[in-house]
Amino acid sequence: MTALFALATAVLWGLADFGGGLLTRRMPALTVLVVSQVAAVVVLGALVLGTGAWSEAGPQLWFAVAAGLVGPAAMLAFYKALALGPMGVVSPLGSLGVVVPVGVGLAVGERPGPGQFAGIAVAVAGIILAGGPELRGAPVARRTVALTLVAAFGFGAVMALIAEASTTLNGLFLALFVQRVTNVAVGGVALLAQTRRGAPALPEGTGPRVLWSMLPALAFVGLADVAANGTYSVAAQNGPVTVAAVLSSLYPVVTAFAAFAVLKERLRGVQAAGAGLALAGTVLLAAG
Question: Which Pfam family, any one of them, does this sequence belong to (predicted)?
Answer without folding.
Answer: EamA
